[in-house]
Design goal:
Blueprint (H helix, E strand, L loop, with lengths): L1 E6 L5 E7 L3 E8 L7 E12 L11 E2 L5 E3 L7 E7 L5 E8 L3 E12 L4 E12 L5 E7 L1 E3 L3 E3 L3 E2 L29 H9 L2 E4 L4 E3 L4 E2 L2 E5 L17 E2 L2 E2 L8 E5 L3 E3 L2 E3 L5 E10 L4 E9 L2 E8 L4 E2 L5
Parallel strand pairs: 3-11, 13-16, 15-20
Antiparallel strand pairs: 1-2, 3-8, 4-7, 4-9, 5-6, 9-10, 10-12, 14-27, 15-18, 16-17, 18-21, 19-26, 22-23, 24-25, 25-26
Length: about 325
Amino acid sequence: MYGVSFVGGDGTPAAVTMNHLTSVLRFDLSNAAFTDTLTSVNFAYTASSGSSLLPASGSFTLSNIGTLTTGTLTGAMSWTVGNVAASSGIAPVYLMTFPDQRSGTLTITATDSNGNAYYREITLSGLSLTSGRMKAYKVTLSSVPTTTTYSFKYYQWDATDEYPTTYNTITSGVATNSCKNCPTYDQIQMYIGAGAYWDSTTPWKDASGTTYTGGIWLKKKAYISGFDAETATKSYSATPMQGVPTDISEYFFLPAAGLKLSSGVSSVDSFGDYWSSTPSSSTTYVIASTLNFNSSFVGVSSEYRESGLCVWSVQ
């Protein structure tokens, strides 16, 4: 903000005219649990066009009419504010920023006084901000589940016991041992067809207590129309959306548990490979269908049955 004042010939000052070089964004962060102060709200911004959306300190030189003469309006790529007052499910946060047009991804993470975390990722496209004006948006944040510990068991396909017990060699029918409750090849395609989210923020632990963050959210079958009748949309592969789904109660989480070979477990938190109950074969080797995913891909794949993968069940 800057002011301009004119002085008359007798030395009497005229009224001061105030002007704004900045714009203001107000985010009304929403969650039913927001009834008290949020201890921390973090914003992270990845720009695809325009300058940064977030405030940053800097030194700027203004002319006598308030225009910028030196300094670059670059902003920050992340910004955190503490002690944000919340009431009746709403916590307002104000960002003073530069007038510009922007497109990019804004990730909002909040923490309350009990240590509970909340999250939302927003894709901005052509957001236009004007000097001296404020835009307000209501943004619903999803509750991030508390850290869950998983005791992974890795099996060769449909083996009776954990890796490296020998895999099942059947070439028709379905699994009858460790993989018998895994989704079928067709069910995996219906999960993929309903849309998936890659989540790099929700923490989880393995049996050793090591914390990781990579994993995927799939929609529960109860929310996939036609799942039981196998008439739901099927997709062989897709690019997962990023973040945590807003309607998180309709989804279940699969950690990126990697896989196990003779050299040990690898690719934990960056890669997931889960067996199906559907066998397949070729003239030269025995394989089985799997659900395979990482941060940019989710699809039906296949693995040698001697690989050690995790099992899962229809949810």
